[in-house]
Write a structure and sequence with these properties.
This protein is an alpha/beta fold. The chain is built from four helices and seven strands. The longest helix is centred in the last third of the chain and has 27 residues. It starts with 13 loop residues before the first helix and ends in a 9-residue tail after the last strand.
Length: about 190
């Protein structure tokens, strides 16, 4: 008896199977998406119309995060937990303190004439060595300060939180507490 040769495996459909497996895994797997802060950038400014912006010192709050992730708020080292309340007090300026933003009479829809600190600016600065998480934590505290101020005035006037208001009511509340956060380019400030 002669030896019988075993037939070889037909490899012509291997490429088709590999292609189908690739498509299957591409469709069924999910990719991680980057998460970040929801910020809407202002429109670009025409360079020919830029004038020197003069901000009075009392209207400016400087929040600096150094390379050791320490927070310096208007020259004082503070803890992250203190930042929100400091920012709220600065923006609101309830007692018209001379060291806090000046109050200006403004005609606000639904509210009438009232004094607001519309010229305030919070300047957020960080060191190149600042950890990303520390920067995000400070951003969250700043955003939370505005959210709480807006919620307070919304509850008093409309009995709802700011997010529950209609668009016109939200614009009115934003006129009382406009969000003005200026972010500077990171520099090398160093530690304490």
């Amino acid at each position: 008896m002669g030896k019988r040769k075993t037939p070889g495996i037909n490899g012509s459909s291997s490429a088709d199977i590999a292609f189908m497996l690739l498509i299957f895994f591409l469709i069924t797997t999910s990719m991680d998406t980057d998460k970040g802060l929801a910020r809407r950038l202002p429109p670009p400014v025409d360079k020919s119309t830029i004038d020197a912006v003069d901000i009075k010192k009392r209207n400016l709050m400087i929040v600096l995060i150094n390379t050791n992730n320490q927070i310096l708020c208007n020259g004082d080292y503070i803890e992250l937990a203190q930042l929100k309340d400091r920012v709220k007090e600065f923006i609101e300026n309830p007692y018209n303190d001379e060291s806090k933003p000046e109050k200006i009479d403004e005609d606000v829809p639904y509210f009438g004439k009232m004094q607001v600190t519309k010229n305030h600016v919070i300047s957020l600065q960080n060191d190149r060595g600042t950890e990303y998480q520390a920067y995000i934590d400070v951003q969250n505290e700043l955003a939370m300060a505005y959210t709480e101020l807006r919620d307070d005035v919304s509850q008093k006037k409309f009995g709802k939180t700011f997010i529950e208001l209609d668009e016109e009511q939200q614009k009115a509340v934003q006129k009382i507490y406009p969000q003005k956060i200026s972010e500077a380019e990171p520099k090398n400030y160093g530690g304490k």
